């Protein structure tokens, strides 16, 4: 090395934060860079002119030629919006969004149909709550088993079977309702059992198809479908019912589910490297963002018996469980009771009540994508994953808590709808909080962890949905129950901010995690 080059390299080291005479602190090994990132501080910038004098070490990369910003990865760049939009992975997440739209549409049809069914059969408010919660009885049974199946067989296969079964249950609901009450309840339970695998399957596919820097956005797209399914179900169901009878939406949504399964089975693959149409550049991009090519990533040994005891011994696990429980409590109470709320409190008819109840889910879809994109941007700009998840989840809890207090004092349906829209819309920030965090803290057991938190969330949803009916019947109003829900939102925010993390907790669980492994 000549004198000029040596001086240039020393200048390069000094500006990047290395002491004279010491090795350059690479992005993958520098304690200083890790310390800055752990506090949510972006990496230092290095003047572009230095790169013209001496090339940086091979392990250091730049974001682009103009900025000179050093990144943690060794070479990968962020995909442009056009590249992202036209990629095969976006087609996969679009199909996931359609599946989740059908999932919620099939679920909310009963929220609209319960009004004419209650009048026809003389059901009380409390018994209507029991009928609506019957879906949750089945939903309670499947998440843990479904999560284990997802970890073992992959999201594509489990999602296909889930959609097929819940579409069958939806399609057969009219026959069940005409047969007996117990048959109707059994069909709703089957719907819940099948839909319990939807979110673990979605998380599994997102973690396989998307690099970490794009996962919040991908979850935002998929969950936008989830919320638009609620809006579509609430808006379209009254129109279909007015022309075909109360059971028309069940048949139509069931048939759409069967069609989705055919497209999903033929047009997608469980992992990027198995997709026949994916380009080499996209395959390499997904792998590079994870530090190595997708085809060379070592797949972990599959564990059939997850370490439940070890998972439950970690406070971040409980933070996820409590977050899912609170999110499910608020979500299902609003989803199940808002049409009845507007119908009884403001005396609007069923179709108007559906419109007032559907608007918040459209807002949730829009804000859910915004939250995901913002979350990815924070991480790409150097803020820690832990900091990002805590910010997103805090907004996802504090926003609805404050908004429900406003809903409590609303004097007109328009004002009430505005507060409800704010509550539901802001709750979508949870998708960039605990929902993405499920993939991060224990990737090897993400399906099981999702199942555990979903089971707790379903229990909370059952208590909230049934409890709201009994509370309104006993107290004569929704105000007290809405105040209780707000208080629970505030408590859950505090618990999450104290104990949640974006770091992995499953590395120390490998020994003795399970005895039986996959034969494949």
From TrEMBL:
Domain Major facilitator superfamily (MFS) profile: 92-504
TM helices/strands, residue ranges: 92-117, 129-150, 157-175, 219-240, 246-265, 318-338, 358-379, 391-410, 416-436, 448-472, 478-500
Matches recorded under Gene3D superfamilies: MFS general substrate transporter like domains (1.20.1250.20)
Keyword field: Chloroplast, Membrane, Plastid, Transit peptide, Transmembrane, Transmembrane helix
Disordered: region residues: 14-38
This protein's name: Major facilitator superfamily (MFS) profile domain-containing protein
Pfam families listed in its UniProt record: MFS_1 (PF07690)
Family recorded in the similarity comment: Belongs to the major facilitator superfamily. Sodium/anion cotransporter (TC 2.A.1.14) family.
Gene Ontology cellular component annotations, sorted alphabetically: chloroplast membrane
Highest taxon of the lineage: Eukaryota
InterPro entries attached to this UniProt entry: MFS, MFS_dom, MFS_Na/Anion_cotransporter, MFS_trans_sf, SLC17A9-like
The organism of origin for this protein: Musa balbisiana (Banana)
Membrane-topology descriptor: Multi-pass membrane protein
Entry function: Probable anion transporter.
């Amino acid at each position: 090395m000549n004198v000029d080059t040596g001086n240039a390299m020393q200048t390069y080291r000094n500006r990047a934060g290395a002491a004279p005479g010491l090795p350059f602190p690479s992005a993958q090994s520098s304690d200083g860079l890790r310390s800055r990132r752990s506090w949510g501080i972006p990496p230092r910038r290095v003047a572009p002119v230095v790169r013209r004098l001496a090339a940086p070490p091979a392990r250091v990369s730049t974001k682009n030629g103009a900025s000179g910003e050093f990144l943690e990865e060794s070479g990968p760049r962020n995909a442009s919006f056009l590249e992202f939009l036209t990629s095969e992975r976006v087609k996969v997440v679009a199909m996931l969004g359609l599946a989740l739209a059908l999932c919620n549409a099939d679920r909310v049809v009963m929220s609209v149909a319960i009004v004419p069914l209650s009048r026809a059969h003389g059901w009380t408010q409390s018994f209507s709550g029991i009928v609506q919660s019957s879906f949750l009885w089945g939903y309670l049974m499947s998440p843990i088993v479904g999560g284990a199946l997802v970890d073992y067989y992959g999201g594509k296969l489990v999602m296909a079977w889930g959609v097929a079964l819940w579409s069958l249950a939806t399609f057969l609901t009219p026959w069940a309702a005409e047969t007996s009450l117990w048959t109707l309840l059994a069909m709703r339970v089957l719907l819940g059992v099948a839909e319990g695998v939807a979110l673990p399957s979605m998380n599994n596919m997102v973690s396989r198809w998307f690099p970490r820097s794009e996962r919040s956005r991908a979850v935002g797209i998929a969950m936008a479908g989830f919320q638009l399914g609620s809006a579509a179900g609430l808006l379209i169901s009254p129109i279909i019912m007015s022309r075909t009878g109360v059971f028309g939406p069940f048949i139509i949504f069931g048939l759409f589910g069967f069609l989705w399964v055919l497209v999903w089975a033929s047009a997608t693959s469980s992992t990027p490297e198995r997709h026949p149409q994916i380009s080499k550049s996209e395959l390499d991009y997904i792998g590079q963002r994870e530090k190595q090519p997708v085809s060379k990533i070592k797949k972990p040994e599959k564990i059939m018996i997850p370490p439940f005891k070890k998972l439950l011994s970690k406070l971040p696990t409980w933070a996820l469980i409590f977050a899912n429980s609170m999110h499910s409590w608020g979500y299902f109470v609003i989803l199940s009771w808002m049409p009845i709320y507007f119908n009884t409190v403001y005396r609007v008819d069923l179709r108007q009540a559906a419109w007032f109840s559907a608007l918040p889910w459209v807002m949730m879809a829009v804000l859910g994508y915004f939250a995901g994109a913002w979350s990815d941007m924070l991480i790409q700009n150097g803020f820690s994953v832990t900091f990002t998840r805590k910010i997103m989840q805090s907004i996802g809890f504090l926003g609805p808590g404050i908004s429900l207090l406003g809903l409590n004092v609303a004097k007109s349906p328009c004002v009430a709808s505005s507060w409800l829209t704010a509550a539901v819309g802001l709750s979508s920030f949870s998708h960039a909080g605990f929902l993405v965090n499920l993939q991060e803290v224990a990737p090897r057991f993400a399906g099981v962890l999702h199942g555990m938190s979903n089971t707790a969330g379903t229990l909370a949803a059952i208590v909230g949905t049934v409890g709201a009916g009994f509370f309104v019947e006993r107290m004569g109003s929704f105000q007290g129950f809405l105040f209780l829900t707000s208080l629970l939102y505030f408590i859950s925010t505090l618990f999450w901010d104290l104990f949640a993390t974006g770091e992995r907790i499953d590395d120390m669980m490998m020994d003795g995690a399970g005895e039986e492994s996959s034969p494949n």
